[in-house]
Design goal:
This protein is an alpha/beta fold and 589 residues long. It has helices spanning 6-25, 30-55, 63-80, 85-105, 112-132, 134-137, 159-179, 184-194, 196-202, 206-232, 242-255, 260-278, 286-289, 291-305, 309-319, 386-394, 416-420, 439-447, 458-471, 487-499, 517-532, 544-550, 568-573, 575-585; strands spanning 150-151, 154-155, 348-357, 360-370, 375-379, 401-406, 409-410, 424-426, 505-509, 536-540, 553-558, 561-566. Among the domains are: 31-242, no CATH class; 338-422 and 546-589, P-loop containing nucleotide triphosphate hydrolases (Rossmann fold). The structure holds adenosine-5'-diphosphate and magnesium ion.
């Protein structure tokens, strides 16, 4: 997580503006000024790629189209519409943002390769429209005579003044994008990138987050494009084609996909590269002939050897000088449990619940009540339908038949994040954390769920997360990146993440899986503490010893059906249960 280190920021700002002011101080050719103008306006579009690809993990191969929306907005607005520059820019940026929203909506059903293909198609259609809809776009001839704006009476007609203005705009936007990961939205974006399923289950409206990411990316692309149009006074369709989108992508990857500073560095290099090639000595001229091949090989080498781009190198170098991160563990409030349910009836009711996968009846009509304030275990041999039941309860699957009633409300048709916002929390059999985020950030994402009864604002989210981490005994590990934590601690972070969201019902899928004997004892103690606080827990486990120690009630599944239910003593003596376990596993474990 980045901290606001004011001197560094001011230093960087001065550096950026000083670079843009160089043409004022020295006699630089107009050509060089134009090249910097190109770099600065492209860099704004690359910031959009950092948001959508770097932060949210969604591939976007249509950034040049959004760049084009901004550029054509300015060009058509000022030249054809006789509008003010700023109004035209706003129109272009607005249209681009709507287009980004529409493109983001396609992520409802599609991800990965399909999403890549959709964005390529979008880019190609945009290109075709620019070239062929001549009455509006003026076709391949492009649009000339685009004016520059004035600002507070400050005439930006001079190239140097305009460059300075663009550099300041870039700096402000870099700052905003740099700060974004620390916000509620930015954390949600990163959770989608790291583990979309877990994000949804923890309460992140993953679809909305992806749509917002695409819209933001489009918005930044269009601002870059609008500034570009003003800078060069002339635009034509070949500035906004697929090759340009690839250039934006390459700049992002080269600089470092998760950092706006990396994005700027990457852009400058990409824009300058052809220039450097021009100055190659005679003997190396052959490189120019195979420029595209060199470019392609370069991209592959970067992806293989520098997955975090140039910024990744800088980060490693900076880390050598940084003090090791620590967390202030003073003044952590004890975790409170909001369990004062005024309602009667069970906390969870499964009503003739069934889930079929084709012909396989994984869950085959289960009736089950989990009473308030109890620990209720669901056991059964491997493959008996335990995990599937839990997946239906929390919305990863919709039931084939039957209903899931949470605290009196039928939630059968809700998406997982909607159920999370009603206080349904869960952990996974195979831990699902946001691997590259810190323990604290993981837990903050659990704390920021909709309707969590805590004060609004990041401070309260953070405080709640620290309380939850402290409850599981990991407050002093808050700053650690979770994938570097030992397995047992990762389990605890996952439990803290769900506790931070004030669950009224906690679903645990094999919480003891993969733990050693000591860790299992600690887990039992933790679960007993949870019960002591009155939390309702519905857990699946395999390990009879563990279940027996902590459960008030046990239900037993076999082949998707409930074959027994009762207190641990009753159930473990039941001949059907013994037979089910002996029949499939050879032992009661
Ligand atoms: P348990 O958690 O009790 O070990 P599961 O609920 O994971 O069992 O699985 C129950 C049955 O459903 C198994 O036969 C499993 O192969 C099947 N199953 C689980 N998920 C799917 C799925 N997504 N598609 C098809 N079959 C599935
Ligand atoms: Mg399972």
């Amino acid at each position: 997580m980045q901290r606001l280190h004011l001197p560094t920021l001011i230093g960087l700002g001065i550096l950026a503006i000083a670079a843009a002011a160089v043409p004022y101080l020295f006699d630089v050719s107009a050509y060089v000024v134009q090249m910097f103008m190109q770099a600065v306006t492209y860099a704004v579009a690359v910031l959009g790629m950092v948001v959508v690809l770097g932060y949210t993990g969604q591939i976007n191969l249509a950034q040049a189209a959004f760049f084009g929306f901004g550029a054509y907005g300015v060009a058509l607005g000022t030249v054809a519409g006789d509008l003010n520059f700023w109004v035209s820019l706003a129109l272009g940026v607005g249209t681009a943002t709507l287009a980004g929203l529409a493109l983001g909506m396609t992520t409802i059903r599609l991800g990965g390769h399909y999403l890549a293909m959709i964005t390529i198609s979008f880019q190609q259609i945009f290109d075709l429209v620019l070239v062929n809809w001549i009455e509006v776009t003026r076709g391949p001839d492009g649009i000339a005579g685009i004016p520059r704006p004035t600002m507070f009476g400050w005439e930006l007609a001079d190239d140097r003044a305009y460059l300075l203005f663009c550099a300041i705009a870039l700096y402000v936007l870099v700052f905003a994008v740099w700060w974004l990961p620390n916000t509620r939205l930015g954390r949600a974006m990163r959770s989608v990138r790291e583990n979309e399923l877990a994000a949804e289950v923890v309460g992140v409206h993953t679809l909305r987050i992806k749509v917002v990411a695409f819209s933001l990316s489009a918005l930044l692309g269009a601002i870059g494009g609008g500034l570009y149009a003003g800078g060069f006074a002339y635009i034509s369709p070949d500035n906004f084609n697929f090759a340009r989108s690839i250039e934006f992508l390459t700049a992002t990857l080269l600089g470092g996909v998760q950092s706006p500073f990396g994005g700027v560095i990457g852009t400058v290099l990409i824009v300058q590269m052809p220039e450097w090639l021009k100055h190659l000595p005679e003997s190396l001229q052959v490189i120019k002939d195979v420029y595209l091949a060199v470019y392609g090989i370069g991209v592959i080498l970067i992806m293989v050897f520098l997955p975090e781009g140039i910024w990744g190198l800088i980060k490693v170098w900076r880390a050598k000088f940084a003090k090791p991160a620590t967390t202030d563990t003073s003044g952590i409030a004890p975790l409170d449990f909001d369990v004062a349910g005024a309602k009667d009836g069970p906390m969870l009711r499964l009503d003739a619940l069934a889930k079929h996968f084709g012909g396989l009846k994984a869950v085959d009509g289960i009736d089950l009540d989990v009473q308030r304030g109890t620990v209720h275990a669901l056991i059964g041999p491997n493959g008996s339908g335990k995990t599937t039941s839990l997946n239906v309860v929390n919305g990863i699957y919709r039931p084939t038949l039957g209903r899931v009633v949470l605290d009196g409300e039928d939630v059968s048709q809700m998406r997982p994040h909607q159920r999370a916002s009603r206080g349904l929390g869960r952990t996974f059999q195979n831990i699902r954390l946001f691997a590259t985020l810190s323990a604290l950030e993981n837990v903050m994402i659990g704390a920021q769920r909709d309707n969590n009864p805590i004060p609004s604002g990041d401070k309260a989210i953070r405080a709640r997360a620290m309380s939850a981490l402290d409850f599981v005994g990991l407050a002093d590990r808050a700053h650690m990146i979770v994938r570097n934590l030992p397995y047992g601690h990762q389990r605890l972070v996952e439990i803290a993440r769900v506790l931070a969201g004030h669950p009224k019902l906690l679903l645990l899928d094999e919480p003891a899986a993969g733990l050693n004997q000591t860790e299992k004892m600690e887990l039992v103690a933790l679960l007993k503490r949870l019960r002591g606080h009155g939390l309702t827990v519905f857990l699946i486990d395999h390990d009879m010893g563990l279940v027996e120690k902590i459960s008030d009630r046990i239900s037993v599944l076999n082949f998707g059906r409930k074959i027994a239910e009762g207190t641990p003593q009753e159930v473990l003596r039941n001949p059907d249960v013994i037979a089910a376990y002996l029949g499939t596993e050879g032992k009661v474990n």
